[in-house]
Amino acid sequence: MKRSLLIFIFMMSVLTAAAQPRYSVFRCQGDAQVKKFKTESWTKLSRNDGLSLLDMVKLGDGSSLVILDTRTRKLYKSHHSEEMSVKYRIDEAVKAADKVTADLNRELLSELKEQDPQSKGHTRIAAAFRGEGGSDQVESLAALVKTSWPTLREDVSCVAFPEDTLSSGSFALECIGGGDGECWMKVSNKGDRGAFINVVRFTSDGKASLCYEFDYESEASCILLPGGTEVTLDQYRFAEAAEGERFMLLVTESPYDTHALQMLLKQTK
């Protein structure tokens, strides 16, 4: 009898965990209301309320909503007052952030060209940025990320690929907190070689995921960081790190398919 009771309690805890929604309200200001999928009534939204992608949300004038992805800890801010699904609000937030990244990449490339039109470094980066630079390195990067987890000794680390052309010591990653439970990344490159960057988030059990994943229809496809520069990526917001989480700056010589790498990381530990 006792054994059966323990099994029942275990199964109920598993079902409860599985039923927890992936998305929730991180913060809402002003008047925010939700109409749950397949219902007709509107109810007030509050912090930590669960959301599904098909739920409809409407905001009052001057109101805003921040949605949390509980798996990736990514935050999506929306301020559109009209009725709009949670999925569309997330898509719009991602599109706006990627546009900022795309504009920043173009500006950095333009500045590099103005500083030295004949620079081999600029030519190499521009070629890679256009997708002309080398073969796909996604599988090698997935293997690198997988083997890096056991060697991490700090909350924030850096790994460069390939190591014979890029020095991880030239790059630094800083996680900046906004004081309201949000954080974002700042990355600097003290070397003279430009590179492409991403950040890998490790959970306490070693599961890895990319912080910046660019969809095939995204206006941006990578994050560029020329030598001697730094970028503050506050267009991408996250909930502050949970206990045991670690971050690793991934620096590469060429851009790559972030969506494909993300899929491979889901299969590894």
Tags for this model:
five-stranded mixed beta sheet; single chain; 29% helix; globular; 269 residues; 5 helices; seven-stranded antiparallel beta sheet; alpha+beta
The rough form would be described as globular
Q: Work out the helicity level.
A: 25-40%
Q: Which percent band covers the strand fraction?
A: 25-35%
Annotation, overall tally of beta strands: 16
Oligomer: single chain
Count of separate DSSP helical elements:
5
Main pleated-sheet profile: 7 strands, antiparallel
Across the major sheet, the strand order is 4-1-6-7-15-11-10
Distance between the termini: 38 Å
Output the radius of gyration.
21 Å
Broad structural category: alpha+beta
Stretches where pLDDT falls below 50 for ≥5 residues? 4-18
Protein described:
With 269 residues, the protein is of the alpha+beta class. It has 5 helices and 16 strands. It has helices at residues 2-19, 86-115, 120-129, 138-148, 258-266, and strands at 23-29, 32-35, 43-44, 50-51, 56-59, 64-69, 74-78, 84-85, 156-161, 171-177, 182-189, 195-202, 208-210, 224-225, 229-239, 246-252. The protein has a 7-stranded antiparallel β-sheet, with helices on one face. Strands 9, 12, 13, 14 and 16 form a 5-stranded mixed β-sheet that branches. A 4-stranded antiparallel β-sheet has the order 3-2-5-8. A hairpin with a 5-residue loop joins β12 (195-202) and β13. α4 crosses α5. 29% of the residues are buried.
